[in-house]
Amino acid sequence: MKRLYMPLLFTFIHIVIYSQDYRWQQRVEYQMNVRLDVKTHKLTGTQKLVYTNNSPDTLSKVYYHLYYNAFQPGSMMDVRSRTIADPDGRVTDRIAKLKDDEIGYQRILKLTQDGKEVRFKVNGTILEVELNKALLPKTKTTFDMQFEAQVPVQIRRTGRNNREGIAYSMTQWYPKIAEYDHQGWHAYQYVAREFHGVWGDFDVKITLDPTYVVAGTGLLQNPLQVGHGYEKPGSKVNRPTGELTWHFLAKDVIDFAWAADPDYTHTIAQVPDGPEVHFFYQKNEKTADNWKRLEEYVVKHFQFMNRTFGKYPYPAYSVIQGGDGGMEYPMCTLILGEGNFNGLVSTAIHEISHSWYQAVLASNESLYPWMDEGFTSFTQDESLAKFSNTENPHTSTYASYFALVRSGLQEPASQHSDHFTTNRAYSTAAYSMGSMLLNQLKYIMGDETFYRAMRNYYNTWKFRHPEPNDFIRVMEKTSGLSLSWFMRYWINTTKRIDYGIKQVLQQNGKTFVVLERLGELPMPVELTVTYRNGAREVYYLPLNEMIGSKKLPTSGWFALTPWPWVNPTYTIEINKPLSDIVAMEIDAAQQTADIDRKNNKLDLSSELKGYTDPTR
């Protein structure tokens, strides 16, 4: 017994220790001092990075992202855009046509670890660094870097002189250390989209022409030297002569982005019990009225998100005209500023919603884009519905999914965001299917439980990089239901939902409704029956995989025994004659992604003795 006991005890202790150490996170502290020459578009600077290895592993190498290197002819981003069937219209073959003074690059001039130079090599957008001293678990090291970069003509997200005339959109602009976690290094080449970052603090000084206004991540530390609307009303600004240095601090963020333009107008709005929101835009006939109106919507959106999904934790946020659409970063977003007002509001609200899922929860967007883009799209639609009193805010999302299914291009959502065969398949999987996952979970769990679970998810996993199982476990614990079956079907497969009314019979004054599962993806079913006297009843069939039922209204609903997912049909007995019924419909609220709704609804307004679908 003793010889068996000791290995078992050791294994138990090992498992306990490992599980406690499983969700460790690396830590970074950046100090950067950079200068941007607005005549040559060259960026030079220094970076001090204190890197803490909280992992149980000894690291002999580290990796940095050099995102600007993607904007060169022949890069992986260039080749992918020229060979994919449906390239992003903003990219196409534009990278291939860049001249030497238009490309982007990031060059490492010198790199030391704890004062000693290290060997490194560049592979596309990845810098591989061979440490001269291995980094042991629970220790830290300091990297000092000198680097230079050329800001590319804006192709996608980052760059200079975009189509609306913004001088600089400075995103993915600095050598950024890659994330290392329990899955290993996430040192992905920059091919098309999505990012992942390490939590940390940024102390950034940016020097450039004093006529430029700078906006970005963090809090400005020297407003009385800078001015440009950052100073408090009535304060005196003492701006030095010559170039101007902007000093920003940002704590507990995964990235740092900024923009600069000499024509920015800077306004501020305060969210009650929330952040101070800064707006930066070029004021002209295309923007002035829209951006002023935008402030009210942004304030209300922050209040809606704080109340519904969890409180925004940072003291400030900036909405910045820049970029080539909309792109999210910690404490700020860069969006297009012109166009119609509805488009401006929709884009701003979408990007601000990312603050909860990309900036605070910060799931790995490259591996699980649906956890960010999808959840963000869901909250965007829910928030916009409050402004417009829309009854079903997710209609267009479902339509996008149905169109993809019909096209034959659908792929499982559970793959790296760069590796989808088409951009359309990626976009629908990440945005639409991610949003639909939440809306269908709301259908399965019930509204009140769902929103409580979403707040629990946010508060449990903020600043911790949650993964799919972390999300669904919170939903299960809050609801008391088994739910992972649905996420596995929806995210890992391309199986579809399709239920239909197969047969309706009358016998001995009772009505018998035979329902049929035609699709491969099982779901709980709600059958709404409408009677001639105007009354309605809902017959609720939980799925046996749920191991439970959502909370139902106290009247008008009937909970039936669960439908085993292996059974192709289920018969409902209604204690009323068929002549009393005028209509019946599966999923009348249209919350499930049922791909063929024609067989969901039956009109019995004319008196019938029985019904059998002739197509069955």
Word description of this protein:
The structure is a single chain. Among the domains are: about 25-190, Immunoglobulin-like (Sandwich); about 385-490, no CATH class; about 500-610, Sandwich (Immunoglobulin-like). The protein is about 25% helix and about 30% strand. The strands form seven sheets. It has an eight-stranded mixed β-sheet with strand order 5-4-8-2-1-14-17-16. A hairpin with a 7-residue loop joins strand 9 and strand 10 (about 170). Helix 6 (about 370-390) crosses helix 8 (about 425-445). The longest helix is centred in the last third of the chain and has 23 residues, at about 425-445.
Question: What secondary-structure arrangement, pairings included, does this model have?
Answer:
Blueprint: H1 2-21, E1 27-37, E2 42-53, E3 59-65, H2 76-83, E4 105-113, E5 116-117, E6 119-123, E7 126-135, E8 139-150, E9 159-160, E10 168-170, E11 176-177, E12 180-181, E13 184-185, E14 200-208, E15 213-216, E16 219-220, H3 223-226, E17 244-253, E18 258-261, E19 264-270, E20 276-282, H4 288-308, E21 316-321, E22 326-329, E23 332-335, H5 341-360, H6 369-388, H7 395-407, H8 423-445, H9 447-461, H10 468-479, H11 484-492, E24 499-507, E25 510-517, E26 525-531, E27 536-541, E28 557-559, E29 569-574, E30 581-586, E31 601-603, E32 611-612
Parallel strand pairs: 1-14, 20-21, 21-23, 27-28
Antiparallel strand pairs: 1-2, 2-8, 3-7, 3-11, 4-5, 4-8, 6-7, 9-10, 10-18, 12-13, 14-17, 15-18, 16-17, 19-20, 22-23, 24-25, 24-32, 25-29, 26-27, 26-30, 30-31
